[in-house]
Design brief:
Structural class of chain A: mainly alpha
Helix content of chain B: over 70%
Radius of gyration of chain B: 22 Å
Largest sheet of chain A: none
Helix content of chain A: 40-55%
Strand content of chain A: under 5%
Shape of chain A: elongated
Structural class of chain B: mainly alpha
Oligomer: heterodimer
Strand order of the largest sheet of chain B: 1-2
Largest sheet of chain B: 2 strands, antiparallel
């Protein structure tokens, strides 16, 4: 028995460890959200919360139901696969209530260079321009039709 | 663009890992090295280094307490840091490092220091007065059993803890090297030798740190430096340094011989942007000069005063050299582009969260903690802790 008596201080030190571990488990129980790990290394309930967020994008099908004329121009041009809201921005509210929500027309002088400003990081065959030299600040739609931008398509309509 | 040469991808222009990430492996290295020095006396029975045994343990603890601070400062949001413990991801090296850190702090260092000082703590709790008495009483954990048998048990358990502590110290700092060495996208870091080089450089820096601290503190205390002890430490520093330098040269030769697609870019960087910090500070001033100085003390019989000066200079240069090594690894790995066609520049700020002043404070903070620990638990063999209070 004397070995236990002489080693009692060690048990006390180990006891502190055990106590700290229990405190850790209790704190963990309260701090870690219940749904954590349900689907992966994240809070499972986050899926529902994200899904409940209001939808901002209408999707190109919604646009095409009304803007058939634009779709006809766009489908044969280079921008056929560029989604409407990629340039016009999220327009779910406009799709829901076209009469009262009118979207602002994008400024092509600043919009187009997002993709078409010259950069060595872009593929060589991708159309790129030095905007200052190419258009001297004029809106791109002066010469290009944004929905089908080849020069043969003419300017904005 | 200012500070950028050639072609850099946009996300490479600014360095994300600043001087704080240089401090992190530097500080953990000092911890691991100091502990390995302490284990020399305990496990390998090198009696000559006994005067530094306790100081080495306290030094390791002081630096270990500060080790995570650079990371917390760099990341910000300190209240998020416990998440690493609450919901660790098994594939995250940093999350696993959190557990290695806690294990080393609590199960190895604190336990070993407590076991080694228990006799002193019990005596101090009986002799001291006021607040100190309360502090020492708490530290006894309510047990004043200092029978011969209980101290013998402490000795045996302490030996086992030191034995466990050696691989733990290797794990602690090997992990830091592992974190860099496993970043396969970066050819400057990605090397299986990285953990091994980090461990040996840690041993070098930790041994040098304790040697310099022991000499400085002993001089400040007005006591005589135990030259047999310092000579032995210097000898171990010399041997460890040779292994460390050989491993780094092995890594270098391997890179030169392999000469993969990154080599020309990295070679150019070493000759330009990293020339001062790597060639001048790390290799010449921080490695070759101290190695030559230490070699001189090993092959000649110099007078005591000359040896003291050489050890001080060699120790200080070693600490600077190992810091430069961490700098070159962390900062150097971010200066070149993955296109191998461009280089950026790191400009350290002065007073920001990741600036020079904060870094200096983080390096001085462990010394402040060490001062408190030395006051609380005097490590001197020439003036046992419990006698110091008795004289008061």
């Amino acid at each position: 028995m004397s070995i236990f008596k002489d080693a009692r201080h060690l048990f006390r030190f180990v006891g502190i460890f055990v106590l700290m571990f229990i405190v850790f488990l209790i704190v963990r129980h309260f701090i870690v959200p219940k749904s954590f790990g349900e689907y992966g290394h994240y809070r499972g309930a986050a899926m529902g919360e994200i899904a409940a967020h209001p939808i901002h994008f209408a999707g190109h099908q919604a646009c095409e139901t009304c803007h058939v004329d634009v779709q006809d121009v766009k489908k044969n041009g280079k921008h056929a696969h560029v989604n409407c809201e990629a340039c016009h921005g999220p327009l779910a509210k406009h799709a829901e209530d076209p009469a009262s929500v009118t979207p602002t027309k994008p400024d092509t002088a600043t919009l187009c260079v997002r993709c078409h400003a010259a950069s060595v990081a872009r593929p060589k065959n991708f159309p790129q321009v030095q905007a200052e030299e190419h258009s001297t600040g004029l809106p791109c739609e002066t010469c290009h039709q944004p929905h089908s931008p080849a020069m043969t398509a003419g300017g904005a309509k | 663009m200012s500070g950028v040469e050639g072609y850099m991808y946009p996300n490479e222009v600014t360095l994300y890992w600043s001087v704080l990430i240089v401090l992190y492996p530097y500080i953990t290295g000092l911890v691991a090295g100091a502990f390995i020095l302490a284990s020399l006396e305990r496990v390998f029975n090198v009696a000559a280094v006994k005067p530094t045994y306790r100081l080495a343990l306290l030094t390791a603890l002081s630096f270990l307490i500060v080790a995570p601070l650079p990371l917390v400062l760099h990341l910000g949001h300190p209240f998020r840091s416990p998440e690493m413990y609450f919901t660790p991801h098994s594939t995250s090296a940093m999350a696993m490092f959190g557990y290695v850190y806690l294990w080393y702090l609590m199960a190895v260092l604190t336990f070993e220091i407590w076991l080694d000082y228990r006799l002193d703590i019990v005596r101090l709790s009986q002799k001291s007065r006021g607040l100190m008495r309360v502090i020492y009483k708490i530290m006894t954990l309510g047990s004043s059993n200092i029978s011969e048998r209980s101290l013998h048990i402490d000795e045996r358990i302490g030996w086992v803890i030191t034995l466990v502590g050696i691989p733990s110290a290797f794990l602690l700092h090997g992990y830091v090297g592992f974190i860099f060495g496993s970043i396969k996208a970066n050819p400057w870091w990605s090397s299986p030798l990285m953990p091994v080089v980090f461990i040996f450089s840690a041993m070098v820096s930790g041994i040098a740190c304790v040697m310099v601290l022991y000499m400085a503190i002993t001089k400040l205390r007005g006591k005589t430096i135990d030259m047999k002890c310092v000579d032995t430490i210097a000898m171990y520093l010399f041997y460890t340094f040779i292994i460390d330098f050989s491993l780094e040269m092995l890594d270098l030769i391997h890179r030169i011989y392999e000469a993969d697609e990154s080599f020309r870019s990295l070679d150019f960087m070493v000759h330009t942007k990293l020339f001062f910090s790597q060639i001048v500070v790390q290799i010449i001033l921080g490695t070759l000069v101290p190695l030559i100085l230490l070699a001189v003390t090993q092959v000649t019989s110099l007078p005591e005063i000359a040896r003291k000066r050489i050890y001080s200079i060699a120790g200080a240069l070693t600490l600077i050299g190992i810091f430069a090594m961490r700098w070159n690894v962390v900062i150097g790995g971010q200066l070149f582009s993955k296109s191998f066609l461009g280089y950026t520049t790191y400009k350290m700020s002065l007073v920001t969260k990741e600036g020079l002043l904060v870094s200096i404070a983080l390096i001085l903070l462990p010394l402040g903690i060490l001062w408190v620990l030395v006051k609380l638990l005097p490590p001197w063999t020439d003036e046992p802790a419990s006698e110091g209070v008795a004289a008061d």
